[in-house]
Amino acid sequence: MTFHHSLPDVWVWNGALSGRYTAYEGYEWLLAWEDGIHDSVWGWIWRLKILENLKLFLWQLTHECIPSTQFLVSRHMGLDTLCQCCHKTVEDAFHIFFGCDVTVLLWQSVFPGLVLPQWGTINWFLWLKANIDEYGVMLVSLLWELWLERNRRVFSGIISPPHVLVGCI
Question: Around Cβ 79, how many Cβ atoms within 10 Å?
Answer without folding.
Answer: 8
